[in-house]
Amino acid sequence: MEGTKPVNKKLAAALSGGAVLVLALSGCGGDDNDKLDSWAKQVCDAVQPQAKKIESANAAIQKETSDNSTPKDVQKTDAQAFQDMSDAYKAIGTAVNKAGAPDVENGEKKQKDAVKELNAISTAYASLKKQVDGLDTKDQSKFADGLKDIATELDKLSQSGNDALRNLEEGEVGQAMAQQSSCKAATASAGATQS
Fold first, then answer.
1. Per-residue confidence (pLDDT) for residue 158, from 0 to 100
2. Which residues of 85-110 are buried (b: 16+ CB within 10 A; e: fewer)?
3. Dist. CA 89–CA 94, nearest whole Å
4. How far apart are CA 79 and CA 56, in angstroms?
5. CA proximity to 166, closest of 23, 63, 36
6. How far is the C-alpha of 16 from the C-alpha of 45, rounded, in Å?
7. Is residue 162 a contact partner of residue 136, using CB atoms and an 8 Å limit?
8. N or C: which end of the chain has fewer CB within 10 A?
9. What is the CA radius of gyration of the chain?
10. In Å, how far from its chain's centre is CA 153?
11. What is the rounded average pLDDT for all residues in the chain?
12. Rounded to an integer, what distance in angstroms lies between the CA atom of residue 189 and that of residue 27?
């Protein structure tokens, strides 16, 4: 199994970068704006279970890299993890969309951009699942090459997907989100996958 192990480690490393996207949905500070606070609570409460789902998907892939897994096992685990991540980001996008625009300057644009980005991330993970499903598990070197391509895609995904989310949680929005215990929990659990 030596052939796929280093590649799958790379995959796990690239994947843990994806958890950073969830971290973008929380900030720090404090503010008093009831409307904004209730918006933040709605979003944070919806994000928390999804952050856990992303964390579990990360953990599943990490575990698969440390076991002496067969290509078939790796394929099954990775495909499920990507599906879970796709679902989680879609659910976060839906939650941000449902919450409406935060009560801040340019709130509507920030919200729309974030939803668009979350949906794009969801689509990207869905297409990675398809890629994993299509890998040849009978030919180990082909399988390792396929995983390498997926790791490269993941790398790009974890680097590109943050801007609209960061933009959404700048300033007052981030401060309001930081006060929500559910966002704190999401940050703590997503942060744990970074170490």
1. 74
2. bbbbbbbbbbbbeebeebbbeebeeb
3. 9
4. 13
5. 23
6. 22
7. no
8. C
9. 18
10. 14
11. 80
12. 15
Closest CA to 118 of 78, 72, 167: 167
* pLDDT tens for each residue of 8-62: 666 666 665 554 455 555 443 344 578 888 998 898 888 888 888 988 888 888 8
Tokens of 50: 């999804």
Single pTM value for the model: 0.82
Distance of CA 186 to the CA centre of its chain: 12
Residues 6+ apart with CB under 8 A from 49: none
Encode the chain in three state secondary structure.
CCCCHHHHHHHHHHHHHHHHHHHCCCCCCCCCCHHHHHHHHHHHHHHHHHHHHHHHHHHHHHHHHHCCCCHHHHHHHHHHHHHHHHHHHHHHHHHHHHHCCCCCCCHHHHHHHHHHHHHHHHHHHHHHHHHHHCCCCCCHHHHHHHHHHHHHHHHHHHHHCCHHHHHHCCHHHHHHHHCCHHHHHHHHHHHHCCC
CA angle 118, 47, 104 (to 5 degrees): 75
Residue 1, pLDDT above cutoff 50: no
State the residue for tokens 């989310």: 165
Both tokens of 175, joined, read: 């401060």
Contact 104, 171 (CB under 8 A): yes
Structure tokens at 24: 């973008």
